[in-house]
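so my prof wants the structure for this chain in the tokens format not the other one, which i didnt know existed until like an hour ago. anyway here's the sequence
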Amino acid sequence: MIEHHRSSGATVDTEVPRPPVRSEVSPRRRRIFNGFSLAVLFTGVLVAAAAAWALPFHYDPDLLVIGPLLAAGFLLVEQLTIDVDAKRVGWTISFTEIPLLLGLLTAPFEVVLAANLVAGLAAQVGKRAATHVSYNAGVLCWEIAVPFLVAAGCNDLLGSTVPLWFCAGVGAVSSSLISCGCAVAALHALGNGMRVSAGLLLGGRTFVVGLLNTSIGLVGYELATNTRWGWTLVTVLAVGVLALYRAYSGLLREQRDLEALSDVSLRVARSGQRAARALSDSDAPAVSAIGEQVSVEEWEPVAERIREQLNATRVVLRISLDPRGEVRTLVSGAAQPGEMTEDGAALLRECPLLQLPGTHVRSFRLIDAPEEIRRSLRVRGAHEALVVPLRGTNQLLGAIEVHDRVSRWRGFGRADVRLLHTLASHLATAMDNRRLLARLRHDAYHDPLTGLLNRTGFREMTAEALHEDAAVVLRVDLELLTTVSEALGYAWGDRMIVAAGRRMREYLGSHVPVARLEANSFAVLLHGHTEEQAAEIATALREVIAEPYPLDRLVVEATAVVGYVSSVPAEEDSAGDVDVLLQRADVAVRAARSGEDGVRGYVPSMGQIFLRRFQLVTQFRQALECGQIEVHYQPKVALPSRNVVGSEALVRWSHPEYGRLSPDEFVPVVEATGLVDALTSFVLERALGRIRNWLDRGLRLSVAVNLSVRNLADETFPDRVSEAFDRHEVPPGLLTFELTESSVMADPDRSLPVLRRLRALGVVLAVDDFGTGYSSLAYLRQLPIDEVKIDKSFVLGMGTDLSDMAVVRSIVELGHSLELSVVAEGVEDDAARDQLVGMNCDTAQGYLISRPLSEERFEAWLWARTSKVAPGECGAPSGETVLRVN
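here's what i got, hopefully its the right format
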């Protein structure tokens, strides 16, 4: 370090850089500067010798007191300095002109020179800047010799025309200019030359500060020597100046501290943003990735900034960037002993300097520390250390060690401790925020259960891959997961998902992006693979996933279906749309469920099928409002009387694009999307309206309406039915609700109470497609039903298959034994009707009687194909009009 001991001298720092960049001095520049230092020393000695020869020495016993006082004064003002940073130049403002002026007025040249040399070199040694003794000694000689020569020349020229203090003042001011000139020359020697304008500005400021200090010294000298009690006034003036100095110095220190806090926090925050962006591109789990994305070099400016702010010889920054325990060590300043950087994690765990509770700064000195601490300081090669841990929300993030202040006259003070504590708090908070930001970004793109990418992360990665090359997207659906969750609990289902994801990751490798899209659906992105290769991988992946899963004491065998799609489809549109690829892969998965091998690639025809289903769903509600949905009626006839007892309401959709649609095509789609409630309400209203119309004409005909699973799960459905009865004034016994066993057994705990409430209203309940369910006989007695409908597949096969006839006969007998009415569907010929009559079946329905007809055609059929039966004739109820099929 090169320092100039003059009031407004510029401090040129070659080892303690000013942020943000370390100023490195090349070996060539160091050789030039060393030569320049020797030149300054040699010329300084010559000028001092010339001044000693030109100015005679007069011995006075008072010099024995004046000399030490001057040395003490020079040393004191060197410690009472104000450091100002101006870009890469450090300004050191002191009051050196005051003791120099007193020396010019009271002591010979040799005494003042000796006092300045002793004080200046002692200050350099105390500040550990003794590496440039030759340069500093030469400057000290120049700073004393020139003022004495200038003062002597001024006195010779002006003589008695000016007072003695004027020439001394001119000499003191010249000392400041000499110091400034040496500083500018030193900068040029080091390769940091200043422009002419900057040099002139520097000289002007130096002259102003020197003139101010000289004026203060002259005023004090005159007061002390020519005024009674002048020393009292001088003391008051000195106290006021020192107070002003301390206040100004404190303001500057606070400003520099705030700048340092802002700089450190900003650097850490920026490094955290880079880490979070890098982390979001990875599909590795968060625990192993957070913090590893930041290189230790990014922390060098932070350590350097802390060292400069505290004016320390060394700062050791230990940061736990890896949650698994790895600690990075960064040293700024003087070289650190090698053993201190070997195992940073062990140091954080074991070193007594770093095992500190809380977040307070601890100060240790070699002269008064416990033996264990002293050993740690000796290992570090330090005489004094400030140590503060960096603690996050729930963990130790690292530690900061600050070793030895550059000026060891007073060591680290309270302001240094306070600043380091604040810096550490800001640094720990910024590091915590960086980790939080990284985790938030990671969680935004990753599945919390498996650690794989989520849908958002997979979309981002796939979109980036599609910009570079073609790719294949696989969608894998794990089957039987719902059954496992219901039987063993959702925790075991989650374990199964994690195991499946791990198997996929192990089979495909860490370089292949794998994502969990939703509950049991995964996605895989394959770069540079053809569809044939993707099919092979999909088949092998399905086999890997289908291997048994050990869950507790059970072994669950699961299956999977895989669909894949290439990013270069047959159509050119939307070839790079990630959502389109995922949707087409989903279409392929649905198609794979109906295949034997469980693997299917996407073809454009699949998209047309699902597009049609999608259009049906989106257009259904509008179709209801526009009259495209119609209710048709298929009559039901009692056996053997052939009296018309009612009809079944069946829906038809006259689509403007696809034509007449059967219920088998659109009802399952509508039911899956939750629109079936609107359809049921529509059919119910039309059916009750038709019943009311028949009642007004004296006909008592019932209508059967089909119910879905969603209707049976709706607790408010019976209330809506009751309101509809009241609104249309229809007896409940003329409405029949038909339901399938599968719809009831999907959730019996919810459906059975709804059925009981409907039965309590007086509604007739019928089981449709009886004989095809998996639990017909077991649950028949539990259902609150009034009739069963034999599935038409058995009725159609009675004429050719004796087993079908036996099934029909058994159902009729079973129904009658349970006091249930039996309805046979699918009656298409006279032979089947006669067989059913022979079995005592109650009611027949089928094409033999009539196809489903629209309302107008059904009315026409009633009057064209039937005839009225007189009341009481052939079992007809008295007082009612009965229609019999001709």
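also thought this was worth mentioning. Residues 390 and 428 are 5 Å apart (CA to CA).
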